[in-house]
Design brief:
Elements (H helix, E strand, L loop, with lengths): L3 H39 L16 E9 L4 E10 L8 E4 L3 E6 L9 E10 L5 E14 L3 E6 L2 E8 L3 E18 L4 E17 L4 E3 L1
Length: 209
Amino acid sequence: MFNRKTSVTASVLALTTLVLASSQAQAGGVGRQLVRGLTYALSPSIGSVQNGPNVNDTSFSQRFNQNLLTDGYSYEFFRVFGDDTYGNREFLNTALLDISLGEPDGSGFQGAGVYSRVGVNPLIIPEVYWDARTAGRNVSSFLGASSVSSPLQYSIESNIGIEQVAINGQIQMDSSGSLNSLGFYDINFTMSNTGTMRTEGVLDERTED
């Protein structure tokens, strides 16, 4: 005998199962797309120039961690900007702006960049945490490479035809903190920036620190 209530219940259960499976698949796909996009944004170059006179001071490394005690996950990366094997500084051309990044002159570092880590611990007292800072790559023949706090040197040039703008300086940043589900938080943030802006053209012509 046909039972309309049983049929409706079975249909709802089947639809719920399908939606949950679809949402899990979509979540996994979004996660993979996010990682791919983030990886490409941080390191768009594929491969490295070989047989140059210098070592390649540009690099990108990333890692995923799992905390089994809290069922937590974290993601961290270290993007280093520096000279390539031919001594050319890391360079980004955005059509409007020409940007180069690297270690401060005279620092002795082999590249400088940004280190960042972000994670979540969902068990016990759920929390999110982060750690981000500018760092230089210090290379020792005995200890290998290590990361130490360092400013990141930048050079930004713009040319819109009638006006040229050049900004050169160094920026140092250190940020860390955590926030849990009870509303408690611990946030530390420091940043310093020193530089010079030079303009030349019809609109303005000056040099300013």
